[in-house]
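2024-03-11 09:14:02 INFO worker-7 job=invfold-0412 stage=load source=structure_tokens
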């Protein structure tokens, strides 16, 4: 029960499919990416409150970065959609992969997600590291018995009649077949989920079109690690579908769970078996991510992603980075997610670990002159990033916890040389009235410690070449005596000329 109380956090986003339908998807957890093509009864927010699904979300989030989405017309995705064909659903999966910035990842198909996952694996084999089927099939009518076909027709009639009813008698038929070993609380929750997931029209149309989806002919083309895991007593999708998948996929491994539930519950003995099988199966992806983390970060990310990581290392938030690089905040987030995936980093500490990785290689990376972010900067990284940053020679573990890193200071450029010019003798400058006044130019910086002012005079003016001595400080008595004395003549810069004789005017 402690696990069910874990404070797990998910990030809900929206992708745009090829036909414009908005697909809601959520990301949570830490580890190698695991994309889940879930069953049609899903609701990204409501599932976290579920006594049926919550243990899946919590435990899988501990071993992988889980990406899951609501099908078109269901949950938080766009409603009122009429096209639920295999091609449309495949386009939804491709849109989520691109919007989430996934490069290579593991794919898990649950229930009706089997045909879509098979088609994606056949068309994009380079994107998948491994493939898993849980309670799924290659086609609803592939190798189906006559009884199963009759049950499919009966389900469609039940949906038309009782899906929208306020009481849950008709919906309880589906719940009792999905988890026959469930409690009343779990049954009631599944009843409510059916009403929340989609409306009656969508339930009828989507089920009819999903019944036609069949990717059985693609199975021989698949050549990647594959795990098929299925409950022996599954009443929604019988066990022979799992045998059919494992028999037609090269190298596939089949695991039979000792359970009668289509969705294995947390208190069943089959639950830890399921979880251990999934953890062991994706362990090579975790090891590959750790090996990738040892490579040079500059060789793994694009130049634009590297610029964004540099700004993040400088303490900038996404809004500030977007303004600096003239990008939208959404574009910055996508570049960061792409960089995290390339570096094998996932979860809440991905940003901190990526910055620590960047700082460990900054002395080998040429920084753009527009973003000179090298220099001594202190960074506190969490315990999850200690594996990456602990190898740095300038990192140490303080007693207060965490890790503190101080990257090496880049070489200091040599000081600029200044040319020493001998100072010229300062001369006074003449005014219009022939008076000598000091020059108003700034003090010369060419001779250190000089506070004299430089004056100029025109050649041949006859002015004195020495600057006037500063007047001594006088008391008030001297100042009053000076004001009462007659003014003295001031030196003139003009040549002495006799005044013209005064003209005598006759009366």
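2024-03-11 09:14:09 INFO worker-7 stage=emit residues=507
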């Amino acid at each position: 029960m402690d696990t069910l109380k874990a404070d797990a956090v998910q990030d809900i986003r929206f992708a745009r499919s090829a036909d414009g339908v908005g697909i809601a998807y959520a990301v949570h957890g830490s580890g190698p990416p695991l994309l889940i093509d879930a069953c049609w009864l899903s609701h990204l927010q409501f599932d976290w409150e579920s006594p049926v699904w919550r243990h899946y979300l919590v435990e899988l989030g501990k071993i992988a970065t889980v990406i899951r989405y609501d099908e078109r017309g269901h949950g938080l995705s766009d409603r009122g959609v009429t096209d639920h064909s295999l091609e449309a659903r495949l386009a939804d999966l491709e849109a989520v992969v691109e919007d989430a910035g996934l490069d290579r990842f593991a794919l898990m198909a649950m229930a009706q997600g089997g045909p879509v996952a098979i088609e994606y694996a056949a068309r994009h084999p380079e994107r998948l590291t491994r493939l898993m089927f849980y309670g799924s099939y290659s086609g609803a009518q592939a190798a189906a018995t006559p009884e199963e076909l009759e049950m499919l027709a009966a389900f469609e009639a039940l949906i038309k009649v009782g899906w929208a009813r306020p009481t849950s008698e008709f919906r309880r038929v589906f719940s009792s077949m999905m988890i026959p070993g469930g409690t009343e609380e779990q049954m009631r929750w599944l009843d409510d989920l059916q009403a929340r997931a989609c409306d009656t029209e969508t339930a009828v149309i989507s089920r009819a079109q999903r019944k036609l989806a069949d990717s059985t002919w693609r199975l021989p083309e698949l050549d990647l690690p594959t795990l098929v895991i299925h409950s022996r007593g599954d009443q929604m999708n019988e066990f022979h579908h799992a045998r059919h998948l494992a028999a037609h996929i090269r190298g596939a491994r089949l695991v039979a769970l000792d359970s009668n539930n289509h969705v294995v519950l947390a208190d069943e003995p089959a639950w830890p078996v399921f979880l251990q099988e999934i953890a062991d199966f994706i362990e090579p992806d975790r090891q590959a991510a750790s090996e990738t983390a040892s490579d040079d970060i500059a060789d793994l990310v694009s130049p634009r992603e590297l610029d964004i990581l540099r700004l993040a290392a400088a303490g900038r938030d996404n809004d500030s980075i977007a303004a600096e690089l003239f990008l939208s905040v959404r574009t910055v987030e996508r570049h960061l997610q792409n960089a995290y995936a390339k570096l094998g980093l996932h979860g809440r500490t991905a940003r901190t670990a990526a910055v620590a990785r960047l700082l460990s290689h900054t002395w080998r990376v040429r920084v753009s002159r527009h973003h000179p972010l090298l220099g001594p900067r202190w960074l506190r990284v969490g315990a999850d990033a200690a594996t990456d940053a602990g190898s740095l020679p300038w990192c140490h573990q303080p007693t207060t916890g965490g890790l503190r890193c101080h990257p090496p200071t880049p070489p200091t450029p040599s000081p600029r040389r200044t040319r020493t010019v001998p100072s010229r003798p300062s001369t006074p400058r003449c005014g219009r009235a022939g008076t000598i006044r000091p020059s108003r130019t700034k003090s010369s910086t060419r001779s250190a410690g000089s506070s004299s002012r430089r004056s100029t005079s025109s050649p041949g003016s006859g002015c004195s070449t020495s600057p006037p001595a500063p007047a001594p400080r006088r008391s008030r008595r001297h100042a009053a005596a000076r004001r009462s004395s007659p003014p003295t003549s001031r030196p003139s810069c003009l040549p002495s000329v006799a005044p013209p004789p005064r003209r005598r005017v006759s009366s």
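2024-03-11 09:14:09 INFO worker-7 stage=report msg="Residues 1-8, 361-411, 427-465, 489-494 have pLDDT under 50 and may be disordered."
2024-03-11 09:14:10 INFO worker-7 job finished
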